Amino acid sequence: MLDLFLPRRCPYCGRPLMPQEEGLCLECLAVLPRVHAELPDNEVEHRLLGRFPFEHATSFCYYVRQGSFGSIIRQAKFSDRPWVNAQVTRIFAEELQLAASQKGVTGWPYDIDVIVPIPLHLLRLLHRGYNQSAPIAETLSALWKLPVENGCLRKRRHTSSQVGLTGDERLRNEEGSFVVRHPERLASKHVLMVDDVLTTGATIVAAADALLESVPGVRISVLTLAFTNW
Predict the structure, then answer these.
(1) Which of 93, 89, 94, 77 lies closest to 131, judged by CA?
(2) Cα separation of 162 and 173, whole Å?
(3) In terms of C-beta density within 10 A (0-12 exposed, 13-18 middle, 19 or more buried), how is residue 212 classed?
(4) Does domain 27-227 have CATH number 3.30.1340?
(5) Can you give the pLDDT of all 230 residues of the chain as single tens digits?
């Protein structure tokens, strides 16, 4: 029902959307800087390789701060427009499934059992009013018929902003910042962790470490909307 009340404008260029356009206008959709990480052995997986055991990892588009997709991600994160992430996620999911079907291979959502959005610390959640990763999880849940588990992974330490930090500083900033509650809910399940942006991977690694330490038999995959290529 929420979709009925969403603004029918492109979140990047602001042009009114035509009836056949969904989420983004066709002009903006055509020029998005896609990562093309639909299949295994992609550069998103390479960034996480060796940092924790995972099954699959993917991202939709490259994040360039002054670029079109960077603008879209910032709107969803800082401008009280979380619905933008829902629209982009819908496009991404369709492209993931189309890529798999065209190549005749098994693709997303593979054998994933449950979706877990990366949580915000309570103070940041109260300040922002929403978790920008929640619409990603909820949209994938509706499309892929998978449950979302919001109560198991918690941000227990309020970390400073990652903007401007080096890779090592980001790792130290996030280390030990997540805790798992009710691990039995995720035991022996394939968990898809979702977030808006993957930069150094520090947040994803910290969350994965918490899951792997506390949840017996858990398997992890990762999906983000944006990926920085530096």
Answers:
(1) 77
(2) 8
(3) middle
(4) no
(5) 344 445 577 777 878 888 777 667 888 888 889 999 999 999 999 999 999 999 999 999 999 877 778 888 988 888 888 888 998 999 999 999 999 999 999 999 999 999 999 999 888 888 889 999 999 999 999 999 999 999 999 998 656 554 555 545 555 555 668 999 999 999 999 999 999 999 999 999 999 999 999 999 999 999 999 999 86
